[in-house]
Amino acid sequence: MDHSNMDHSNMDHSNMDHSNMDHGKMDHSKMDHSNMDHSNMDHSNMDQGKMDHSAMDHSEMDHGAMGGHAHHHHGSFKEIFLKSLPLGIAILLITPLMDIQLPFQIIFPYADVVAAVLATILYIYGGKPFYMGAKDEFNSKAPGMMSLITLGITVSYAYSVYAVAARYVTGEHVMDFFFEFATLLLIMLLGHWIEMKALGEAGDAQKALAELLPKDAHVVLEDDSIETRPVSELQVGDVIRVQAGENVPADGIIIRGESRVNEALLTGESKPIEKNVKDQVIGGSTNGSGVLYVEVTETGDKSFISQVQTLISQAQSQPSRAENVAHKVASWLFYIAVVVALIALVAWMIIADLPTAVIFTVTTLVIACPHALGLAIPLVVSRSTSLGASRGLLVKNREALELTTKADVMVLDKTGTLTTGEFKVLDVTVLSDKYSEEEITGLLAGIEAGSSHPIAQSIVNHAEAKGIKSVSFDSIEIVSGAGIEGEANGHHYQLISQKAYGKALRMDIPKGATLSILVENNEAIGAVALGDELKETSRNLIEVLKKYGIEPLMATGDNEEAAQGVAEVLGIQYQANQSPEDKYKLVESMKNQNKTVIMVGDGVNDAPSLALADVGIAIGAGTQVALDSADIILTQSDPGDIESFIELANKTTRKMKQNLVWGAGYNFIAIPIAAGLLAPIGITLGPAFGAVLMSLSTVIVAINAMLLRLDPK
């Protein structure tokens, strides 16, 4: 499929078959990503066109972590906490704890009235995020953590105001809970601020992508002078000059110059693509040796990089199964707490009196507040996302972490995944006693010096890496269908294919390699074997997979010989000559056998199988197709990062389970005690102790999440 003349402006990509796309010719300048349907991403409430991710302050966002359900952003928790803190401290200084005056407190006439006024202000201002959040929960018929917090602070505040009124109206001394109310509210505000700040660290992944773009661009003015301008100030229609080796600052179309551009962002392959006038380039791709003049076609939120950031931001808000479990537990706790609190209220009114009943009721509601449970999953995910980003792992789908721990088989693409996707010199062989290896290498580099072909460049680069000077050729001509020939130092040389040479050679040829023969006067004097080189970390990856009990299987579109060569080196099973449909059917058949399948590919021809697999891992800096189909993106294109991801998945899942136990487990023991079940034997929990216990659980959950570490690479 040739996309070069297609208008993608209103195209819905969600149901497209990407398997046969020619992405190298895709016109991204006309592509409107804002209308794209990114597979399973829910963009329904998202105005992508107006989102500026670079300026977004993630620390103040409510990412919907409270039990996996998104609450509206009812103001900045940081701002509310800091403004509420003086009110809370004032209340703590003038009201006793459980009728006991503490050494730091100052009690004076009508201090309780002052406390009531301050508490009212604190309840209205500081409590707003919670009772608005509770309203959201009830509207969605899913009461949970915000509802419990609201119950706790409302009951303690309302009863305290009643206690003060009773003292002055009836003269009866009724104990208030202003101290407990203030501490509870401040702790909750502080906890939510910390949570939002921690969740904001997930923005590291977006920041890492943004760094692919240079900070400044060289803008060509009308008089051909150059002005250095921040990339953020570029506008559509600007002409920018991209020097050799620089990253392209913005999406655009070439109007002058030619070069080879590494578009790993688009193709997942690291082999540079030849670019000429009227070809498109993508911001973040790397220019080769030529100088390009590019007219900017997309900027800001419509650029490729920005769409990547938007997609990741949306993906991070998706709750995983663990978060759904946390929300269900919170819902159960809400109903249990309310029922137990009502039972305690009635029972203690009968057994004792109203003040006693209220003490047990408030304590029950305070201790049931599952703030630690609300932090249990988000803090681990936040820490996990941050750790992953630091290793070049972008986790789009959190559920992939849990599924990876259950994986049975990993299907691996070859080219660009296990191998570099580039032709490199694998071996230089001397076939004549008249020449040394250094001389043969110099001749090879000299005869290829004038060619810009990637294979020729790999030979030249090989000589340069070894510090060997290229032989200077007087004339070089192409031999049609065979290779290249030229004159040097009075000798005639040819570099031709093994087939063109037509004679048997006594030498070991690396499996799957392409062999070129250096000939002098019809006699082979040397040979160079070129091939797709295995990535350094591929061997270790296979060992790691076997250690975790995951079966590695290579599926490649390459021929039998090339596939067999790589498979034998790695010691794994393989499938050769695999079309995208073949790979899809391979993954489908294994899933039908109830196997959990991880698929690893470059995100282009592997897109269908990446989407079908239980976990799809895209190798590359993030191709558009990979963004639509994969769950995990390895920005550094390094198979060794898969090892880091498996480790991250196992450790993250373990921490989630631990935090769910810490965040919810204590409630099921503490709630009955708080309600006074053990009061007959002298064991009771006051509201203040309930708040301390709740806070301790939150601290344990936070510390446990922060202890998540990855082993050094």
Count the strands?
A: 22
Low-confidence stretches: 1-74, 201-205, 265-270
Instruction: Describe the largest sheet.
Output: 7 strands, mixed
Helix count, DSSP H or I runs of 4 or more residues: 23
Counting helices, strands and paired strands, the structural category is: alpha+beta
Mean pLDDT: 77
Specify Rg, calculated over alpha carbons: 33 Å
Q: How are the strands ordered across the major sheet?
A: 10-22-21-20-11-18-19
- Tell me what portion of residues adopts beta-strand conformation: 15-25%
Ends apart, CA distance between termini: 41 Å
Helix content: 40-55%
- Describe the global form: elongated
Pfam families: E1-E2_ATPase, Hydrolase
Main location: membrane
Family: Belongs to the cation transport ATPase (P-type) (TC 3.A.3) family. Type IB subfamily.
GO biological process, one term: copper ion homeostasis
